[in-house]
Amino acid sequence: MSDPDGFRAEARAWLEANCPPEMREPMRDESDACWGGRNAVFKNDAQKRWMETMGERGWTVPDWPKEYGGGGLSPAETKALREEMAALGCRNPLSSFGISMLGPALLKYGTEEQKQHYLPQIARGEIRWCQGYSEPGAGSDLAGLQAKAEAVSDPEGGDHWLVNGQKVWTSYADKADWIFCLVRTDLADKHRGISFVLFDMASEGVSTRPILLISGNSPFCETFFDDVKVPKDQVVGEVNRGWDVAKYLLGHEREMISGFGLGGGAPLGEKAAETVGRDAAGRLDDPLLRAEIARFEVDSLAFRAMSERFVDQLKAGQAHPAQPSMMKYYGTELNKRRHELAMAAGGSDALEWESEASRGGAKARAWLRTKANSIEGGTSEIQLNIVAKRILELPDQ
Amino acid sequence: MPLYLNDDQAMLADSARSFMAAEAPPAHLRALRDEGSPDGFSRALWKQFAEMGFTGVLIPEDEGGLGLGHVEAGIILEEIGRNLSPSPFLTTAVAAVEALKLAGGATRQRWFPGVLSGDAVLGLAIDEGPKHRPHRIALKAERSGNGFRLTGEKQFVIQGGSADMLIVAARTAGSPGEEEGLTLFAVDQDAADLSLESARLVDSAMAAHVRFDGVEVDADAVIGEVDQGRAPLAQLFNAGRVGASAELIGVGGGAMDMTVAYLKERKQFGRAIGSFQALQHRAAHLYSELEIARAAVLKAQQLLDAGDTGAELMVSVAKAKAGQAATLAVQEGVQMHGGVGMTDEFDIGLFMKRDRALGEFFGDAAFHANRVAEMQGY
Ligand SMILES: Cc1cc2nc3c(=O)[nH]c(=O)nc-3n(C[C@H](O)[C@H](O)[C@H](O)COP(=O)(O)OP(=O)(O)OC[C@H]3O[C@@H](n4cnc5c(N)ncnc54)[C@H](O)[C@@H]3O)c2cc1C
After folding, report:
1. With pLDDT > 90 as the criterion, what percentage of chain B qualifies?
2. Which residues of B touch A134 (CB under 8 A)?
3. Which residues lie closer than 8 Å to B34 by C-beta, 6 or more apart?
4. What is the ipTM of this complex?
5. pTM here?
6. Which residues touch B248 (CB under 8 Å, ≥6 apart)?
7. A204, B64, B126, B324: which is deepest, by most CB within 10 A?
8. What share of residues in chain A are helix, strand, coil (percent, to 5)?
């Protein structure tokens, strides 16, 4: 293995010098994530500094080419950097659908101008993106989408698309600056009638309505388009071939979501002992819960190894293109199990929803939030269908 | 006795079903939640429960109740579960009433009329940590003058803040970890040196943390005999646990019905999602789990009503099985609803929240599976 030892030592020294101490404390919950964007809200100075410093260095996207704002690192260097960040407890400097979803799609399908324009903004956290895929009638059957874009030639304002329709479950649409959006450009062909467009959420005719989740938060929205004008050059890939871009992006989204399975922090059993107690031999004082947690940890540690292997194989071009579906399925089911067990361990304390002692019901709300993991980015059932069809090559029903 | 409802029981089921669906459907819970109801339930509904005769279901006929058994209480609870109807029924009319049957005449005469009229709410002060571990009870009751002085803390006292009286499990002998040496007391909730802090739970019910800073009670506050709290506590637990199991069957059944209806209605890929075999099999599996859990619950109820010595084992089987089946129902329910299942607007998430709290109440599935192992001697 070409372990870039020189790089590793250098990266560590740089991280130690540049990562603010506050950004080396574990994130307490979703609200500690840094999303950047035009209207970025930072929890503190350290968070802002950390995003900007990493952005300047290109290490928000270490493996993207330098000319697009990335770090230009090799797969081995990228891995070393991630390991050093983990070892030092550095927080992710920038959570971003631009990084995890749109960027990879632009790198593969974007024009040179599009890459030059959008990628550095993503790397620096200047523009926050949201994903306009799902519609009320098109969830699992995403290609059934109906929001449409009509070509309009306008001698005065230039040619553009006129977008009309509705999206739903658009995460953070109310906070996002831009949207990457699937629209129908040909009514006759289900899969080859979809285009992948980018536009500013501040465009006239865009509106959002937040939807309340069972966790009591509202991170996602209904999103409406009413005669939204989108300049012609804001299509990624060929017109009517947006489905290819969409699917490629979904692979990256699923890879990202599978990371929820990694958990982090102290082993679950250790945390459980705080509420459940230990017997004289130091074992968790609930033999069945202990057994369930131990079985969970076996799967979790094995999944951790699988994640490392998957990324290594992916970078080496050895992963099956449908492998992200397996990862997404497994990682999200695992994360749901983790939170079920955390709730079981927490007992009645964990049921509290508003109290100060429960930090406003943090445990219960996080548990409920994980239920979406096996739905967002394509449901578990859809991932299993993909694995069965594309990897196992099982016949259609 | 056949393991299905007889005609009278089926009639009770019909009236409980139409009553809950009309008076306390999920929209009722939502309204209470949204207005931040300090009780977490409606006192007017509790009065209606009394008018229907529900609150006296387990109270003997010669004391003004219906004198029915756990099967009948369970019938009402299942409909409560199916409709997510918030009420003090399980704690007050089922668990507390069963314990009070072993109390002296004066205590019964003091509390049964209020339960019958839907005025009284009775709380259960048993758990002291986040998990249900009754043998670890440490709250101390020391002799003091003519009575006792109680010192210690309780938590997860459902509707404790709204209660008129708390049934308190206290240690009068031995040390935490021992099953013997407990005594049950009926303590006025507004007693001096008793302080209480309520917290809203995930299912919008209120639960209290209660502190006893040397609370003085008379000797006649004892339910049953001093140091012999095991008997009334067992009676309370059996009733509470089998009752919670019945309610869980309702929660699980309600979630399943909603989900099956959605599988028929929601279309993707040009067909009802319920036509996909992957979902059909899971729905059929869920049905099987719930049917089996329902049988276990009914068996436990009948054994309890018959005073059978095997009842306690079956009660734990019922609580563990109903808990697992209901949890499966709500998990499958949310998953099969897809994105809408995650929204507050749809009811399925409310079922998931209720299941979580009810599953924990009186011991979760792991607690009861472990108890089955103990009772079977391994
Ligand atoms: C928290 C959250 C955030 C989200 N964020 C975004 C976002 O930012 N942008 C965006 O575009 N979308 C987003 N989504 C939407 C998400 O991608 C969809 O919810 C998902 O694809 C499922 O679609 P649906 O909700 O319409 O469910 P449906 O497709 O109606 O599915 C209902 C059930 O049927 C099952 N099913 C459907 N088809 C089959 C089949 N062929 N075989 C077996 N089972 C099947 C499903 O697995 C599911 O269990 C988000 C969703 C959630 C919950």
Report:
1. 99
2. 339
3. none
4. 0.97
5. 0.97
6. B81, B293, B319, B322, B323, B325, B326, B355, B358, B359
7. B126
8. 50, 15, 35
Query: Cα dihedral sign for B25, B29, B32, B37?
Result: positive
* Diameter over CA atoms, chain A: 83
- Any idea which fold B231-375 has? Butyryl-CoA Dehydrogenase, subunit A; domain 3 (1.20.140)
With an 8 Å Cβ cutoff, is A10 touching chain B?
Answer: no
Backbone phi, psi, residue B167, to 5° = -90, 115
DSSP state letters, A235-265: EESSTTBHHHHHHHHHHHHHHHHHGGGG--S
Range of the domain at A222: 129-240
% of chain A with per-residue pLDDT over 90: 92
* CATH number 3.40.50.170 given to B124-227: no
Tens digits of residue pLDDT in A12-70: 999 999 999 999 998 888 889 999 999 999 999 999 999 999 999 999 999 999 999 99
Residue A105 lies in a domain: no
Q: List, for residues B271-289, the tens digit of each pLDDT value.
A: 999 999 999 999 999 999 9
* Residue A270, both tokens: 């250790």
- Chain A's closest residue to B155, CA to CA, is A348
Residues spanned by CATH 1.10.540.10 within chain B? 7-120
CATH code that applies to domain B7-120: 1.10.540.10
| Residue A156 DSSP label | T
Whether A249 maps to a domain, the answer reads no
Amino acid code (one letter) for A252: H
pLDDT tens-digit profile of B200-223?
999 999 999 999 999 999 999 999
A214–B349 C-beta distance less than 8 A: yes
Backbone angles phi, psi at A88, to 5 degrees: -85, -5
Q: Does A136 touch chain B (CB under 8 A)?
A: no
Return residue ranges of chain B for CATH 2.40.110.10.
124-227
* Chain A residues touching B125 at Cβ < 8 A: none
